[in-house]
Design a protein that fits this description.
By secondary structure, the protein is mostly helical. It is built from twelve helices and two strands, in the order H-H-H-H-H-H-E-E-H-H-H-H-H-H. It has a two-stranded antiparallel sheet with strand order 1-2.
């Protein structure tokens, strides 16, 4: 896939422009978005992603379009899992509802920047060292196994990472909220506000999730441009999704199982692909492994859509059954 430099520049410029527009709108009027507002913006971002995929199909072919859609859906589903932790972070820091949009947007800007660095490093690694596919694949399978062992992670508490603890210990801070300000001046000089800590927590937490999501998408496409754009479209609509389906998130009781299956599938796909491009001298003398099955992008996209559909339907049915049982006990009591 030969992407001209001007397309890269235009893509990054449009992303920055959308973020700046969001920042200016929210900065002028911090508020809790209505369901209609969140729905409109989410529909816009989803529509843009779908149209982008159609454009890839038109200019580059169906295979690359399938790679984009598979990567986008995977990143979106993994990002939904992030929302559970984001909810916990918001509750832990007691973020006022009208300021949550600002915190999320700033966290997303940090996440996009850090993910771009991860993508660049990952692209260089797999281009120079094909054996990285073995590492990525094994890591995803390990992550899936760990996810199954730990169970439903959204009920876990949020543990502050080392960077957050270091910042809190090193810099003077205030417990008082001052709107969207991250710094204020006091008799102690310049101090950080809770908003600064929340943004840092959101951004660095997403970085930890990127350790899973970036290898996962490289298992579906090795095109850096598609990896970047899939991440952009997945993260751009994340803020609206937070407000739109905040209550629905609690009903996705089987999401962790679906994600575990998806990660293990992509991990196995990566390991199989590593066999196709094998150069390790202690494996088949450094030659590609014969007879290794090849999972096409069409098959991958079908499996991912099926996993998401089954997970969502099973979760909603289970939640409905539990609610009905609870209502029956309440009425009986």
């Amino acid at each position: 896939m030969n992407v001209p430099m001007w397309v890269w520049i235009l893509t990054i410029a449009l992303t920055v422009a959308l973020l700046l527009l969001d920042i200016l709108v929210i900065g002028r009027r911090p508020h809790v978005p209505s369901m209609a507002e969140a729905g409109r913006y989410l529909a816009m971002y989803v529509s843009l992603a779908v149209l982008f995929g159609v454009g890839v199909w038109h200019f580059c072919g169906a295979d690359y379009a399938g790679q984009f859609y598979a990567g986008w859906l995977t990143e979106y589903s993994l990002s939904i899992d992030n929302l559970f932790v984001f909810l916990i972070i918001m509750a832990k820091f007691g973020v006022p509802q009208k300021l949550q949009q600002t915190a999320l947007l700033a966290g997303i800007v940090i996440a996009l920047t850090l993910r771009a660095v991860f993508i660049a490093v990952g692209a260089v690694a797999i281009n120079e060292f094909s054996w990285f596919f073995y590492i990525f694949g094994a890591f995803l399978v390990y992550t899936a196994v760990r996810l199954v062992r730990e169970g439903c992670g959204q009920d876990d508490g949020f543990d502050e990472n080392r960077l957050l603890k270091w910042v809190k210990a090193r810099f003077p801070a205030t417990n008082q909220w001052h709107g969207t300000k991250v710094f204020i001046r006091s008799n102690r000089g310049r101090v950080i506000t809770p908003m600064f800590l929340v943004i840092l927590a959101l951004g660095t937490t997403d970085l930890l999730f990127a350790l899973d999501s970036i290898p996962a998408i490289f298992g579906l496409t090795q095109e850096p441009f598609l990896v970047l754009t899939a991440n952009i479209f997945a993260l751009m609509g994340l803020r609206q999704l937070y407000f739109l389906i905040g209550g629905l998130l609690r009903r996705l009781v089987f999401l962790w199982i679906g994600l575990a299956v998806m990660l293990s599938f992509i991990g196995v796909k990566l390991i199989l692909h590593a066999g196709h491009v094998n150069t390790l001298p202690f494996i088949n003398g450094g030659h590609p492994l014969p007879g290794v099955p090849d999972i096409s992008i069409g098959q991958s996209l079908t499996v991912i859509v099926a996993i998401l559909a089954v997970t969502t339907i099973a979760s909603l049915l289970k939640s409905r059954k539990d609610n009905a049982a609870t209502a029956s006990l309440t009425n009986g009591g």
